[in-house]
Amino acid sequence: MKKALVIIVILLLIVAGGVYYFLTNLDVLVKAAIEKYGSEVTQTAVRVDRVKIDLRQGAGGIYGLTVANPKGFDTKQAFALGETSIKINLKSLGEDVIVIDAITVRAPKVMYEMNAEREGSLNNLYDNISKSIPAGGKAGKEEADAGPKLIIRKLVFEDGAIDARLVPLDNKTYSVKLPKLNMANLGAPNGATGSALAKEILGRITKAAQEEVKRQVVDKQLKSAVEAERKKLEGEAQKRIEEETKKLDPRLQDLLKR
What we know:
The chain has 258 residues and is α+β, with helices and mostly antiparallel strands.
């Protein structure tokens, strides 16, 4: 009886110790999980400066999250997210689908590069994430390994910026503003894996970034090039007129000057 009691006490202490370790090291554990699984999904290096979790409030913060660019690009990073705040629906934690009420990403920086082969860095990253998602119809272990299903009620990217480097254009880096992005009910109604959500979110960011780079960089450069060519042609035409005028009979030249 005493022996059994001792074993029970030891087990309780082990469990209590494990719970204490988990709670006191939760921030570190979440940080490690983001870096590990994020790197696996994107097939690039994902790093986080720090994480702060408040279980009682169902809130969390992720600071200094960066995602490296895929191979084949000179720009080091694809994303640098300054501060990400998260609000979780605590009632959903025991359910099959975890509901995240809100995610706000403040001051994100998107680095979009098009290399000499005309490949887009964000497009390649999108392809990497797509490869990590089990093919349609393949449920079971692969889907279970992908983690719990999630629904994100509201996701906002605000005060963001884009650094665009377009090698085929002029190989310069242009800094433009990233419009505020609002997304709602991602993964609804049945929930989606983290990989599937990452793919959808990245797809929307890529589209927004490409549209803004086209509007603020490519279109302006094209307009400037067309204007420069127009002035060049006008100058050449005027020079040709002057040259041909000199060849005319002096009496005709006088008539043209009147």
